[in-house]
Each structure stands twice: as structure tokens, then as C-alpha cells.
Amino acid sequence: MSTMNQSGTQTGKASLLQRAKGALVNNWNTIRWFVAILALVVAAALFAHWNEQRAQKFSTEELSGIRKLVTFAGKSAREAQRTQSNPLQALLHVNYALCFVNAANHMIGDPATLQKLSNINVIALKQHLMTSQAQLLNKIRNQCTEKAKQTDLLEK
What we know:
By secondary structure, the chain is mostly helical. It contains 6 helices and 2 strands.
């Protein structure tokens, strides 16, 4: 490609604009594919963001129910502490409390969001309940072995 210089004679070098235009025409297919793939990636990211936001929207009734689950878990935990003299009954309350916490956590999916919603430290509550559950199970197992030993001694 040749161009005219100021004196009116042709030169062998093309101008920058003509070279850019030629490169654009030569690489048009590659540019189209790049733009198409970029558009698909952006569309997928937007869809993922929209889907995440849609999944986290709860009605006020649902939020109230989830808040009640955490509240019931707290009440069951207090009831378990109150009934420590009967480890089987206390274990029942602890199991209910763990079920309530796990159900609420499964619905919301994020313990921090659940804590903001219920004003209860759900992570600490769940850890406390799991510790209480293990202690109560050990206490029940020990009582059962003691009872079994006493029964064996009486039968002999």
C-alpha cells in the first residue's frame, strides 16, 4: 500500500490509520470471537450474582420462622441446663436444640447472617450444645455401666 507525501509523490509506507484499519480487517474474526467469549463470561457472572441474590431473599414470615428456630434452640439449651439432674431428659433438650440450630443454619447458610438475624451467637451456641451433648452421653453411659454392675452383683 502506498500513500502520497506533501510533494505529491507516492511513498511505500502506509499511514498509521491505514495500517490499523488493515490489521482490524485481517483480525476481525479473532476480535469477534474474543468479544463473544467476553460477553458470555460477563453474562454468566451476572447470572450467578443474580441467582445468589435471589436465593438469599426470604419473606418476613420465613425470617420470623428462622428467628424462632434459633430462639427455641436457646430455650431448649436453657432447659437442658435446668434439668441436669436427669441426664436423659437434658440430652433430649440438647438434641432438640441442636436440631433447631442446624435447621436454621441450613436455611440461611451463613452463621454470621444468622447471628445478625437472631442476635444470638449461633457458633458459640452450637459449640456449647455439642459439648453438652458429649458430656451428657458420657454421664448416661457411666450411669448405665454402674447400673449394670449393681445388677450383676445382686444376681450373684
